[in-house]
Amino acid sequence: MIFTGPRPPVDIPETSVTSFVLGRAERYGDRPAIVDVTGGNGYTFAELASAVRRAAAGLRARGFGRGDVLAVLAPNVPEYPIAFHAAALAGGTVVVLNPLDTADDLATHLDEAGARLLVTVPSEVAKATALTGRTKVEEIVVFGEADGATPFSALLVDDEVPDPSVDPARDVVALLHSSGSTGHPKGVMLTHRNLVAKALLTSLVAPTGEDEKVLAMPPFHHAFGLTMMMNASLLQGTTLVTMQRFEPEAFLAAIQEHRITRLYIVPTIAVLLAKSPLVDRYDLSSLRSIVSGGAMLDPEIARLVRRRLGCHISQGYGLTEAMVSFMQSAEPEAPASVGRNSPNVECKIVDVTTGEELGRNQRGEILIRGPHVMKGYLNAEEATRKVLEPDGFLHTGDLGYVDDDGELFIVDRIKELIKYKGQQVSPVELEAVLMTHPKVADAAVIGVPDEEASEVPKGFVVAREPATPEELMAFVAERVAPYKKIRRIEFIDQIPRTPVGKIERRTLKEREHAIG
């Protein structure tokens, strides 16, 4: 059974992502497109579009075009979309990199992508330069100035940019990396059509107005920040206020000072907004809406945020491979769901063992099909075949079901289910129970080897105040079936998470293996 959403399909323009996203820039004119949170620099829509064209011309003058790859290693700064869209307009591909990655990981990503140019910020130039000897990178370009690097301003020339004649459905314009929380990160190939669809669908299911301001804090190197936030905001004439890193008080101060109307956040920040006493020190009355992504949002936390801030908060569901597949309404009818299908997005639920298609209210693996689904994994044909069916459906690896109203509910990651004496135990369910204990600030659960049971659930807890393993295990045991009980608890200082808030269970399992 194939599930579709309540909205009618829309036409996906057959054009390049830059032509689509910046197509209205001249009309928006002198309205601010992107500014730094400090107020240090920024661009109007007209200036942004002009800089993209001039930088694209500069890249073409360097021989950069179709088939070439430019890498961006930078936090969120106003120049980021200029570099991205200049390379796209020149006909090339952009690999976006996480500045927090190790030098080995960065070298691997650059080498796999075959990047010739690396654009970065002054603070990362030394790291970038060290990578040139290990990769195909020929030139370091820096936003601003730094010794040993070409200033980004040197790329800006006034020549006309020839039409790169891209094939929107086939040409890869962006390479992002899956989080790697359950295995080695893979390069996700996204075409122009993929990114056009992502920006368009976001504008339909989570629209912003031309008078709005978005705090651009989720990293642009992640699909959530690049596609849902950066491109969709520029498409709609919404101002982006860039923030390089998250710090609670600076985050709250930015909302107050810039009169931010829309936030894109991860669930850990929703907890801050719901419970932290810091929130009461700032005027957040400008907020109209919040979109949570990256991991599941606790319905109770969402309710607390709505009540405290008086604004809408909703969550969506997607992957780097298929961002913005589902989205809740502003006032979700089923708070625990991730909403209904976005336009043009199809979904089916299949039996994990047999692959048989299931009906409503039956749990199985979630498969997604639509114009936003990736082309495949870079240099990984076998991995691509495992997740992409010949008919275009993508295996998400997530376990869930669709209810009678068409709402999708995520149960867990299939690979992360704990096998206790033949029973499947969801770590997400146990984490949700732990988080309701007043002494628990954060929690994660993994399966650890056990001779008798195969695996047993172990909880890692960041305590809000002193607690004992026994009282927390007893608390959980009172609220779950006997086979789901947590059998071990370890207190730690911080739960390892990805930049978008997903628990890095692999890190916890490696920690457990090292100790055990």
TrEMBL record:
Keyword ATP-binding: yes
Ranges where the AMP-binding enzyme C-terminal domain occurs: 429-502
Protein name: Acyl-CoA synthetase (AMP-forming)/AMP-acid ligase II
InterPro entries: AMP-bd_C, AMP-bd_C_sf, AMP-binding_CS, AMP-dep_synth/lig_dom, ANL_N_sf
Domain of life: Bacteria
Source species: Micromonospora halophytica
AMP-dependent synthetase/ligase domain: residues covered: 24-378
Residues making up the signal peptide according to the UniProt record: none
Pfam families associated with the record: AMP-binding (PF00501), AMP-binding_C (PF13193)
